[in-house]
Design a protein that fits this description.
This protein is of the alpha/beta class. The protein is about 25% helix and about 30% strand. The protein is built from 3 helices and 11 strands. Strands 1, 2, 3, 7, 8, 9, 10 and 11 form an 8-stranded mixed β-sheet that branches. α1 packs antiparallel against α3. The radius of gyration is 20 Å and the shape is globular. The two termini are about 15 Å apart.
Amino acid sequence: MVKKGVGLLAAILLLSLISTAASAFSFDDIQLWAGSGSNKAALVIDWNDGKEPECLAWGYRWDGTATGRDMLNAVKNLDERLNEVIGTYGQAAVLGLGYDLDSDGFSSNDSSDHYQSGWSTSGFWSYWLKSTTDVSWSFSHYGISGRTLSDGCWDGWSFSKGVAPDSITAATSVPEPSSLFALVTGVAGLFGFGIRRKK
């Protein structure tokens, strides 16, 4: 009876995780928030490099006026795993973005880390925007410094080869190590308990 109960609980937990992953990503799913204030926005970065998680999201809070540049700077100050290469094309431009996936210090030469850079037909970072009422992303006609944020907006960066994508999908929140550890140990504990009861 206990064995069946543990198996059922593990199955419910697994279905819950699958359901959460499949549902639409929202502000409630964001775990890391930079800044403070009554307004909120999301920053999404999609490396399109096949390394999981491929697409990450952070939150940003502020009062008064803020730009896309302010949000990216605040997120970088919060999460030191995120790295940026800036160039100048009339104004400051994002040429490269990297992320330390294995927590051993970021390096653009580390095959375990995210890193994409370029400003040509072979690859470039494109800037995308979405408001609270938008279903899909639209290409930004503003540079990062000229982009004024509004409450509830989303800013997305996507690296693509050839042409810019028409959408960015399924952003995955940056996991907090403590939350991830609790989830893994909890599931392991359930299965361990089931094995002990079987013996």
